[in-house]
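PROTEIN DESIGN WORKSHEET
SECTION A - STRUCTURE
LENGTH: 988
TOKENS:
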């Protein structure tokens, strides 16, 4: 390919030159260029290397269907791999690099893969890298991962900003070509709210730049009820007529201006949709058809007419339809030499014949290109006689010189969105293409995507679709017309030509250029029994690249149909799934990143914690004190000191983050009785009860205490992580499952500050500071709840213990939280009270054998954790009907036990438990460690975990092994209740 800039023509602004670099070399283009057109204008013919064989690849198209010219745009934190050079708008200072090559694009060592062609055929990864043991994969894995992928992304934080937009409209028109313009004009005439979106920078499609299209766009832009969205790709069609789109707001500049987003994600909810998404030209298979210089015919025309760039100096055409002759006309008008026109048909239309004569090219009818010639780039073509039934002939073949070959095998309607929101595609024999199936949502297809390839037909269909959409919204449209647009006289009905190779043709014949899938791969898949279209796709990876097979899918189906001796519609097709083109994660996340994604929540005591040396850590969305470490203390030393002090005297911990839900109503007790697995119907006023909440499948979901404050009011507490999900579930149950219950639930997590006073001196501390609560054992027994005052401030006091010590929880209004906290600490000074963090809190609960999040992991039952006695068999509640199913009552289920380090080593959470004598590789896992800590009470490393036949194994020695770091610790299986197993310290 020897592309060059034409002296005139195109829709570029030659008065605005732009400088850019590709692989470090500086080039010049103009405003209106794409990166692809600018490189082509500078004579660049090598754009990348193929995925598997690392073959040299050049430009193949001019749009989003481009399978070859993938580059990494920008560098550093803004680097974006796998962007298509064909859709990158050129800007001054643009920086792009080629991909998938080493050490350079011109000389790629991995090109030696071509020598291993038979080894790398379809399904090679299933056959080559497997072995009798896992060691086979381990041997290959490093090299496979090094070779996998195309471009490499950055690990640096994305500095760009992204926005989200929600839009509602009466009619969404996707595609602003002739059909889309007419649909938008017709719908807008009724007063309908219309959105017209198109992926191109300039709207109009094939009429782009024409006076008629410009007038129509100006009229639409002047209407208040019309929104024009250029540079916007509608990538997905979802339920309820909801469509996703990405607008490239600042991708065409070096960096977004301050406050400007790089991309904007649109969620569009439309009453009616018109799909005017156009069609994509498809190639024809022949030998070495991937050489740089082989290009789709319409792409060659677009580079001339839009960018003023000739695709080569000596161009040939290989086609099977009259429409491809538009490209010959464009070449001739631009003064580009056309060496030959190779047409598989024996007869062509009169207009095509006239274009061929005017171009001066040699016209070869009933002929086919059987092979592309040349090394790193195209130097010529081989041509042989072609018969529609027998195909190309073996024997004498003629060679013709050319540095660019334009190929056209017909058109493939762009039915991606229709496939996502409709029934199976329908086959059209005349066009040899799939058209949109039956709509399952309120959309209509118009124009080329619906098979209307001529301009006049597209305009008519667009007007009709826009009018019908407006009428479906209850509006009255006016007749619409686009003046000055005449239909092309070139018919587009192609002769079905899929594979132009002769029986003994040479050279690899590629179907999917991006994934290096060849015609022989499809034949091999057939021979090996992969005959379903879904199996073919996955075994060969046909159509699974980033281009989603836009230029390869139909050809691949045709070759498969030939193998099966079936028609293409009998073979069927896979369904397209979103996104239509790759979508950046930044666009999907929008502004939901950092604090906007996980809003940091702070308790009412947060400032006090920071002022007093707390090291904060995230607990779900909350920040909680990890430890109050001294200047020379490690985290471990700090939490051991804090936990020991609680056991010996008293400590104060912030528990404000626990979920708190106010449950009120005459049926509140009945409601809780149905929610919890244990009884709550007869819970007395002024008492709390620990409860278990199950999922509908019988697995444990959440636990906590619920306090009965009056006959009709309860205060439910949940784990920190499940506060919002539990509230949501309660609201669902009241709305949909038990609407007859008169109950209201309200989150009060933020309204209450909570603190736990724990330790043998905790009663003395609170007795010294509470105004009107009798703290005696008789007046406030275990699980008792009392209202009172502390320094004149109203509080709730409940005698509860998570630590296993005598303990109380004190709740007060959040705005009083710091005052109550500091007064309790002041009252505790004579007793040696200290604040402690969540590390010490975890240590205390593990020593006591209390379960928490690591044990409530969604895979455990109450019986697994030794809490089976809390699942009532006398009532019905959420999850109760599933408790007796075989899987949940299997005696072989993992059970909760404790572990003590036998050799003094630290036990790691997540470690697998294996028998010490197990010599298998890998050894069989008997369970795993869930929670671990150093116990100051036992002066040993201890852990909780789930183990096969756990209670029966108490006293056994096992290995807790951590394969990721090749660490093993010998442990002894013990009861999960390490400290004060009879609970006497809680009841003093």
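SECTION B - SEQUENCE
RESIDUE ASSIGNMENT:
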């Amino acid at each position: 390919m020897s592309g060059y800039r034409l002296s005139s023509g195109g829709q570029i602004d030659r008065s605005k030159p732009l400088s850019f670099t590709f692989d470090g070399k500086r080039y010049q283009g103009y405003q209106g260029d794409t990166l692809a057109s600018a490189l082509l204008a500078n004579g660049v013919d090598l754009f990348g290397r193929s995925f598997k064989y690392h073959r040299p690849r050049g430009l193949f198209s001019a749009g989003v269907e481009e399978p070859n010219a993938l580059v990494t745009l920008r560098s550093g934190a803004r680097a974006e791999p796998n962007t298509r050079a064909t859709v990158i708008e050129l800007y001054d200072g643009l920086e792009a690099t080629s991909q998938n090559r080493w050490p350079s694009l011109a000389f790629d060592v991995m090109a030696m893969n071509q020598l291993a062609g038979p080894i790398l055929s379809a399904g090679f990864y299933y056959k080559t890298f497997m072995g009798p043991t896992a060691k086979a994969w381990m041997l290959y894995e490093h090299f496979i991962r090094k070779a996998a992928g195309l471009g490499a992304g950055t690990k640096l934080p994305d500095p760009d900003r992204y926005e989200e937009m929600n839009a509602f409209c009466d009619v969404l028109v996707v595609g602003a070509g002739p059909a889309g313009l007419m649909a938008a004009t017709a719908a807008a005439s009724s007063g309908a709210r219309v959105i017209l979106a198109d992926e191109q920078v300039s709207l109009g499609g094939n009429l782009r730049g024409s006076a008629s299209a410009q007038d129509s766009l100006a009229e639409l832009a002047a209407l208040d009820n019309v929104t024009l969205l250029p540079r916007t790709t509608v990538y997905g069609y979802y339920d309820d007529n909801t469509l996703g789109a990405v607008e490239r707001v600042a991708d065409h500049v070096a960096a977004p201006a301050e406050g400007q987003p790089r991309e904007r994600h649109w969620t569009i909810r439309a009453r009616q949709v018109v799909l005017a998404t156009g069609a994509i030209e498809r190639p024809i298979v022949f030998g070495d058809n991937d050489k740089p210089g082989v290009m789709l015919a319409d792409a060659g025309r677009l580079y001339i007419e839009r960018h003023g760039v000739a695709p080569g100096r000596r161009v040939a055409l290989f086609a099977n339809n009259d429409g491809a002759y538009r490209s010959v006309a464009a070449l001739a008008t631009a003064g580009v030499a056309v060496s030959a026109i190779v047409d598989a048909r024996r007869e062509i239309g009169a207009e095509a014949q006239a274009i061929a004569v005017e171009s001066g090219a040699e016209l070869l009818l009933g002929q086919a290109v059987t092979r592309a010639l040349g090394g790193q780039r195209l130097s010529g073509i081989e041509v042989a006689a072609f018969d529609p039934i027998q195909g190309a002939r073996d024997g004498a073949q003629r060679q013709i010189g050319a540095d660019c070959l334009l190929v056209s095998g017909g058109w493939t309607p762009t039915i991606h969105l229709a496939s996502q929101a409709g029934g199976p595609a329908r086959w059209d024999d005349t066009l040899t293409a799939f058209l949109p199936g039956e709509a399952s949502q309120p959309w209509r297809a118009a124009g080329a995507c619906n098979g209307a390839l001529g301009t006049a037909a597209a305009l008519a269909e667009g007007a009709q679709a826009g009018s019908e959409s407006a009428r479906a919204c209850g509006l009255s449209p006016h007749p619409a017309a686009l003046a000055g647009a005449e239909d092309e006289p070139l018919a587009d009905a192609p002769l079905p030509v899929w594979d132009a190779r002769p029986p003994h043709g040479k050279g690899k014949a590629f179907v999917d250029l991006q994934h290096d899938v060849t015609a022989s791969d499809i034949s091999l898949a057939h021979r090996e029994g992969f005959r379903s279209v879904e199996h073919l796709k996955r075994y060969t990876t046909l159509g699974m690249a980033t281009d989603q097979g836009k230029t390869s899918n139909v050809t691949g189906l045709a070759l498969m149909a030939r193998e099966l001796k079936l028609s293409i519609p009998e073979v069927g097709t896979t369904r397209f799934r979103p996104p239509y083109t790759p979508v950046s994660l930044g666009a999907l996340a929008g502004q939901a990143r950092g604090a906007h994604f996980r809003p940091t929540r702070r308790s009412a005591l947060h400032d006090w914690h920071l002022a007093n040396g707390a090291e904060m850590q995230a607990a779900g969305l909350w920040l909680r004190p990890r430890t109050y470490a001294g200047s020379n203390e490690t985290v471990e030393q700090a939490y051991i000191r804090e936990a020991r002090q609680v056991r010996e005297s008293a400590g104060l911990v912030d528990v404000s983050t626990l979920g708190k839900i106010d449950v009120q109503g005459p049926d509140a007790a009945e409601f809780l009785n149905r929610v919890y697995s244990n009884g709550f119907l007869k819970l007395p006023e002024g008492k709390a009860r620990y409860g278990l909440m199950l999922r509908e499948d019988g697995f444990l979901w959440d636990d906590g205490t619920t306090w009965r404050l009056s006959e009709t009011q309860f205060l439910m507490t949940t784990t920190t992580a499940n506060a919002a999900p539990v509230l949501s579930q309660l609201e669902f149950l009241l709305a949909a499952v038990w609407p007859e219950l008169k109950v209201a639930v309200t989150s009060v997590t933020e309204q209450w500050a909570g603190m736990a006073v724990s330790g043998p001196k905790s009663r003395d501390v609170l007795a010294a500071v509470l105004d009107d609560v009798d703290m005696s054992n008789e007046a406030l027994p275990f699980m008792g709840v009392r209202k009172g005052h502390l320094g004149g401030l109203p509080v709730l006091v409940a005698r509860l213990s998570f630590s296993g010590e005598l303990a109380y929880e004190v709740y007060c209004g959040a705005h009083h939280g710091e005052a109550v906290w500091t007064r309790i600490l002041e009252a505790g000074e004579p007793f040696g009270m200290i604040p402690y963090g969540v590390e010490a809190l975890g240590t205390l609960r593990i020593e006591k054998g209390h379960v928490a999040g690591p044990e409530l992991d969604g895979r455990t039952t109450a019986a697994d954790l030794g809490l089976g006695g809390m699942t009532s068999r006398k009532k019905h509640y959420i999850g109760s009907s599933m408790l007796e199913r075989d899987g949940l009552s299997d005696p072989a289920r993992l059970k909760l036990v404790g572990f003590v380090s036998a050799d003094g080593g630290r036990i790691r959470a997540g470690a697998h438990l294996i028998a010490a004598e197990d010599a298998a590789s890998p050894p069989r896992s008997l369970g795993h460690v869930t929670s671990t800590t150093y116990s100051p009470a036992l002066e040993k490393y201890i852990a909780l975990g789930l183990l096969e036949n756990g209670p029966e194994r108490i006293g056994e020695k096992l290995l807790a092994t951590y394969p990721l770091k090749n660490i093993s610790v010998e442990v002894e299986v013990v009861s999960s209740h390490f400290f004060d197993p009879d609970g006497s310290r809680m009841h003093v």
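SECTION C - NOTES
The mean pLDDT is 92.
Residues 604 and 814 are 6 Å apart (CA to CA).
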